[in-house]
Design a protein that fits this description.
seven-stranded mixed sheet; about 475 residues
């Protein structure tokens, strides 16, 4: 077999197959390999006309088909399956070759793998790929980590197959060393969870309080998608809400079980935020909402608990309420991105990645699930001020939330009075109010900690750490 392929993809499930086709469509010769040979042959038979594919039945054949430096893309399940593929292929590679993991790996695993392979002279490139199967085929947002040297060789190829923003910029950048790419992809998915939860809450409020049908709400979302909420998720929400089930004639959303599943990246975002001490309350509420939707018994038993029943508004009141919901959704969305970028900053500081937040916002403008028009403004905010402590510190976003906050609060008042849960909206507003508060109850919390555990506290009027002798005369001692 000749060494004719410029890149190789092993793991030919939907994402791997479509990524291989994307490379081939863009003029690259692609070696393809799968544990089940039938999948390899099926790809070549069905899509061989799209470009140059080099089918390989064995690992040795696959590696032999790749030109140096070898670029080997792994598209298999995260965890042990990824480790198994690395163990199979790494002994066949040479110094300077690279393994690119395009799955949803935990960034800590990526850091471990990168260290181990670096000792063998092999570049390991943990790469976040967002956009689903359609993005993999037609242009995803790509978030590669790894060494600068690996990106010099791989980057131009990724830039060619990536999505392109409205200004033509490729939606890919070298995020940073070792696990930086998978970390940023993780946070992307966490923001995605929050975004979907907020959209779901807007839908439920419009239906239960506004009295709108799913088809009418679809039209509302289409209108919103022509303005500042312009985004992929708003667009597809309108499509889902307007869909009618062919078998029953009912709205599609009414025949789907009221359970939302998850694959883990949202949980990882929250878990790592806890480790870093970063408040991502909106993302956490989105994860908890999915968890709450699952256990049927947990929700069935308390259905008869006391509480208000939503009273639907009349037509004129409903229209005004829909406008207020738009304000609440937009303000809460800003908070979700604020929390996500805060976590990226904390991770970058913790692991010395030096992540450029403006570049992250830039590559999320196309291809990925959370692509949205206002990412252009997020990019501009960080480009103007790379040390921006929070998106809410940006004058434009601060002004928009100031203009939205009265309606935001009114929506939550209505939700509470009507008994409609809105944990995402509530968490976002609580975060906003916590940031703007001069003092929080944290001083009391620290006093309690000092009382029962002698954990000490700091004073507002002088330097040092102090402890009060609570059991005696309550005198203060310097710790």
């Amino acid at each position: 077999m000749s060494t004719s392929a410029q890149i190789g993809v092993t793991g030919l499930a939907v994402m791997g197959r479509n990524l291989a086709r994307n490379f081939a469509r863009n003029g690259y010769a692609v070696a393809v390999h799968n544990r089940t040979v039938a999948k390899t042959n099926a790809l070549v038979e069905e899509f061989g006309h799209e470009g140059t594919f080099v089918a390989a039945e064995t690992a040795k054949e696959f590696v032999a088909a790749l030109e140096r430096p070898r670029r080997l893309v792994i598209m298999v399940k995260a965890g042990e399956p990824t480790d198994a593929v690395i163990q199979e292929f790494a002994p066949l590679l040479e110094p300077g070759d690279m393994i690119i993991d395009g799955g949803n790996a935990h960034f800590a695993d990526t850091r471990r793998r990168e260290r181990a392979l670096r000792e063998q002279g092999i570049h390991f490139v943990g790469t976040g790929v967002s956009g689903g199967e359609e993005g993999a085929l037609n242009g995803p947002s790509i978030m590669p980590g790894g060494s600068v040297e690996s990106y010099a060789s791989l980057g131009p190829m990724l830039e060619k197959i990536s999505a392109k923003a409205a200004d033509g910029s490729p939606c890919v950048t070298h995020v940073g060393p070792d696990g930086a790419g998978h970390f940023v992809k993780m946070v992307h998915n966490g923001i995605e969870y929050a975004d979907m939860q907020l959209i779901g809450e807007a839908y439920q409020l419009l239906r239960d309080v506004g009295g709108y049908s799913p088809a009418q709400i679809a039209d509302i979302f289409r209108t919103w998608n022509t303005g500042r909420l312009d985004s992929y998720l708003i667009e597809i929400t309108a499509e889902v809400l307007s869909h009618v089930d062919a078998a029953t004639g009912k709205p599609f959303v009414d025949v789907v079980q009221d359970r939302a599943e998850q694959k883990g990246t949202g949980r990882w975002t929250v878990q790592i935020a806890l480790d870093l001490g970063v408040p991502v309350s909106g993302i956490a509420e989105a994860v908890f909402a999915r968890s709450l939707s699952g256990p049927a018994g947990l929700r069935e038993a308390p259905r008869e608990l006391a509480g208000p029943t939503a009273q639907r508004l009349d037509e004129s009141e409903a229209a005004a309420f829909a406008d207020r919901v738009e304000q609440a959704l937009y303000a809460s969305k800003i908070v979700s991105y604020t929390q996500g970028f805060h976590e990226i900053t904390a991770g970058s500081d913790e692991y010395d990645w030096n992540i450029d937040l403006g570049s992250v916002a830039s590559i999320w403008r196309g291809g990925c699930i959370i692509r949205a028009a206002f990412l252009d403004r997020i990019r501009a905010a960080y480009d103007t001020r790379p040390d921006l402590p929070s998106l809410l510190s940006d004058a434009t976003f601060a002004q928009e939330i100031a203009a939205a906050q009265d309606d935001w609060r009114e929506v939550l008042v209505a939700a509470t009075r009507q008994g409609v849960p809105a944990p995402g909206f509530s968490a976002a507003l609580a975060y906003y109010d916590a940031l703007r508060a001069e003092r929080l109850p944290a001083a009391l919390t620290q006093g309690q900690r000092d009382f029962f555990g002698a954990h000490t506290y700091r004073r507002t009027d002088r330097e040092g750490s102090f402890h009060t002798l609570w059991g005696g005369d309550r005198s203060e001692v310097e710790a």
